[in-house]
Amino acid sequence: MNYTKDDDGRLNNFAVEPRVYTADAPSKADRRNYLIMAAIAVVLVAGLIAVAVAASGAST
């Protein structure tokens, strides 16, 4: 562990920093999978909104 000592003699313990790395660009397969997941999410949200609208209109 790395300790530093200030003028009053107190120790300060610093956390170990993680190694830094660069991210790789997504491949064509990754981009396709992201697009498919986004389409599924849009359909799911639209379906939930449709059910909410139908349920709110059924009570009147």
UniProtKB/TrEMBL annotation:
Membrane-spanning intervals of the chain: 34-55
Domain of life of the source: Bacteria
Record's keyword terms, sorted: Membrane, Transmembrane, Transmembrane helix
A Pfam family this chain is assigned to: Psb34
Protein name in UniProt: Ssl1498 family light-harvesting-like protein
